[in-house]
Amino acid sequence: MTFNKPIADHGHLSDVLNSATEPAKKVLLASPRGYCAGVDRAVIAVEKALDHYGAPIYVRKQIVHNKFVVSSLEKRGAIFVDEVDEAPEGSILVFSAHGVSPAVVAAAEARNLQTIDATCPLVTKVHREVQRFASEDYDILLIGHNGHEEVEGTAGEAPDRVQIIDGPDDAANAKVRDPKKVIWLSQTTLSVDETMETVTRLRQSVPSLQNPPSDDICYATQNRQVAIKKVGAASDLVIVVGSANSSNTVRLVEVAKDAGAKAAYRVDFASEIQESWFEGVSTVGVSSGASVPEVLVEEVLEYLEKRGYGDVRNVTTAEEDVQFSLPKELRKDLKSVGQDVSNKTKRG
After folding, report:
1. Mean pLDDT across the stretch 189-215?
2. Has this prediction a pTM greater than 0.70?
3. How far is CA 187 from CA 124, 183, 227, 324, in A?
4. Which residues of 232-246 are buried (b: 16+ CB within 10 A; e: fewer)?
5. Is pLDDT of 20 > 60?
6. Residue 213 DSSP symbol
7. Which of the following is catalytic: 150, 152, 157, 320?
């Protein structure tokens, strides 16, 4: 499956960014942005579970890292819990898109919970890589943020073989048993540039460090970072929509600044935008994290239009056509009663 189709710049992007007749105020709208296939799958899984089984449906942690999405699902009857033992025995429990460790799966089984695994397939891929290399007695240097749910779940596959490396400055702390049997893997939502800087630092002490068999940083994360680089380089102000606990959203703010944006801010909602940000600003860049529904971006664009930034220009750097099937446990139950098992509400 082709995860992204790069858009060739035959003068189009250059025209968007550098037109000599540009108005005083405009918006550069990054594309791709917003929901990725893994998030879409996870949210729809909870929605369909609520429709099929009825409320309440328990979800371990936030299904995706977005306040609006979580609140919307709560209103429909989803109950978010931090730990498995908070879900009543025998109830239905959904594992979030970030994945869980084998210990969490075992705890759910011990409570006789009916589980639906909404882990993003690209996160599952990294779990399988950990399993493979741990079975071959490798030391695994997992580049990611300590405490992040995805990292906890991935490291939990082989805690005696995985060491978390939290950014470039943590690289010097890496400890390995055999320098010839070391591989690095990564959290799927990191900054590509920062990850490669961390790898470069790691190789200073472990020159024989091996690369993952395939890229771990997900296609959506990379695509959104490429788009925000293009937008950030031509913007006075960049607004990224997304929640503070969304790793990929936070990275987009950092990437925009590194690309040359004079200022970049993250907001959950348009109401959080501050008037003081617009002093001397003619070009505003807008994007959103991979767990953000488009309605929140539309509210930001409405806010900007009311303040004179009504000329919106799309800056498209890739096209995405990825779609993941629903979790197998849910598909099985839906099929048994003749219900639709397709993911028909793919958002792009």
Report:
1. 95
2. yes
3. 11, 14, 20, 19
4. bebbbbbbbbbbeeb
5. no
6. S
7. 150
